[in-house]
Amino acid sequence: MVAAAARQIRDGEIVFAGMRLPLLGFAVAKATHAPRAIGLFENGLIRELPPRGFVVTMGDGPNQRDATCATTLIDVLGMLQRGRVDVGFLGGAEVDAFGNLNTTRVGKTRLPGSGGGSDIAALSRRCVYVMEHERRRFVERVGYVTSRPRGVVTLITTLGVFTLADGPPRVVSLHHGVTRAQVERETGFALDFAQAEETPAPSEAELRAIAEADPSGFWTR
Amino acid sequence: MREAVERLVRSGDRVSAACGLEARIPFAAGHEIVRQAKHGLTLVGPISDMLYDQLVGAGCVRRIEAAWVGNVGAGLGHNFRRALEAEPPLVEMVDYTNLSYATGLRAAAEGVPFGVTRGLFGTDIARQSDAFREIADPFGGEPVFAVRAIPVDVAIVVAQRADENGNAHVWGNLGTTLESARAAERVLLIVEELVAAETLRAHPNRVLIPGLLVDAVVVEPGAAHPSPVEGYEERDHAAFEAYHRATRSREGWDAWRAEWIDGVADRASYLRKLGR
Questions:
Q1: Inter-axis angle of helices B250-257 and B49-57, to 10 degrees?
Q2: Measured between CB atoms, which of A56, A59, A117 is closest to B173?
Q3: pLDDT in tens, B24-75
Q4: Interface predicted TM-score (ipTM) of this complex, two decimals
Q5: Among A81, B53, B182, B234, which residue carries the largest CB count within 10 Å?
Q6: Tell me: the pLDDT tens digits for A196-206?
Q7: Does B115 lie at the interface with A, CB-CB under 8 angstroms?
Q8: What is the predicted pLDDT for the residue at A204?
């Protein structure tokens, strides 16, 4: 899932990386096929080098050290609002067929909220979401619209790669060994499987980059 | 610290205590607020990490205006979740996004009634509060969202170093540190190190908080633990994980608070307890 997510970042692009798993996806892309990608972080950091060492939050030492620029939240989010960001990288608790994300409230459960997620979805040219694929998370309509994407969404899950917010939701690829029935069981909205391929397996370089960025398996165990 | 919190933080205040965005969070001041049983606070912030969860658990908080409240490493903040899931909720919540929060805070910092953003369209965040209003562009462009200014009574800010007048050098990611200090009526500045005024003046571009904004300077190394202070303190990931596990239940939170807040007199004793 992490390798497939990292591949969505093209070399040289300006990437806005949200909290948690997206931080890892950016680190892996930088270390493999996208060495010239530039990362913006909502705490005020801009990075061109992959972080050296394990990062849990964007404020951690290894994400600060060798940063290209350390500035304010409104400075980097202003660059996003100005239209400079190619791709926004997000996670969420619930996603729907329209690409809306919910990170605020699911049923009675109160979640932490938007952070910069809503801004990143609204203001990036396109978005990549990374999520665990479970039926309770993949719903026809989210219970609360925290984030509404402006552009096309590529959704990377534990089962496959999908396109949302660009006509009816469709399957780009299924990960090795994953069946259509399995995906349908875990998805609360209809999917078009006509063009579905198999997700290329992670390369050795990608696996090495993931192991280096997450040595204890904190994010990927 | 005790005296500064007594003097500058009043029950009922609107408080900004998480402006560093995951870095430089003033845990020492927050724990002092709990020990002094300040109450009825409104906490404002962008992504605000687990200090706000602790203030909620301790019953200091009436209302939160923020983009995110939880534990950045571990996810949910259990006290926050419990308070919001209670019937009726124990804390009033106004959800922001990071950019809309910073937009409102900057308006307050600059003394204007609102700021504008292109975000929020089509979201439930825009609908849940009258702090946001869609308006026409008076110059004929696309509509935008107006975000009401977010006033702050007291900002508690951690910086690396300052002189005794509160002129402060801050580095690493800044989050909403600058806007918080500028929006606030009162600023409590906490530094790792007190340095001579000449050291500050040698790098005036790095003086991001001028002393004219600052009401008290507290020199308290380790005040931000377990959050990081670039150049002084690495993030203590294990402490965030341990807090997450310990506070799953209300009883677990009570025990954590008894041990780490009420059970220590001040930050120096807290650091000794950590084995430093």
A1: 100
A2: A59
A3: 999 999 999 999 999 999 999 999 889 999 999 999 999 999 999 999 888 8
A4: 0.95
A5: B53
A6: 999 999 999 99
A7: no
A8: 94
Taking CA–CA distances from A98, the nearest residue in chain B reads B122
Is the Cβ pair A43, B173 closer than 8 Å? yes
Q: Is A191 left (phi over 0), alpha (psi -120 to 50) or beta?
A: beta
Chain A hits for B122, CB-CB cut-off 8 Å, are 100, 145, 148
Q: pTM, whole model, 2 decimals?
A: 0.96
For the record, the structure tokens of B30 come out as 């927050």
Residues B123, A145: C-beta atoms closer than 8 Å: yes
Residues of A known to be catalytic: 42
Handedness of CA B23, A147, B76, B156 (dihedral sign): positive
Q: Which residues of B touch A147 (CB under 8 A)?
A: 123
Partners of B182 on chain A (C-beta within 8 Å) are: none
How far apart are the C-alpha atoms of A134 and A185, rounded to whole Å?
Answer: 9
Residue A153 C-beta-side C-alpha neighbours within 13 Å: 32
| CATH number for the domain that contains residue B209 | 3.40.1080.10
In angstroms, the Cα distances linking B272 to B155, B215, B246, B262 are 27, 29, 21, 15
The answer to whether residue B82 is domain-embedded is: yes
Q: Are B131 and B162 in the same domain?
A: no
Residues B228 and B130 in one domain: no
Tell whether the model's pLDDT for residue A163 goes beyond 70.
yes
> Where in the sequence is the domain holding B91, given as residue range(s)?
2-97+150-274
Show residues of chain B in contact with A131, CB under 8 Å.
none
Beta-bridge partner residues of B117: B145
| B47 inside 8 A of chain A by CB | yes
Domains of chain A are 2-213 (3.40.1080.10)
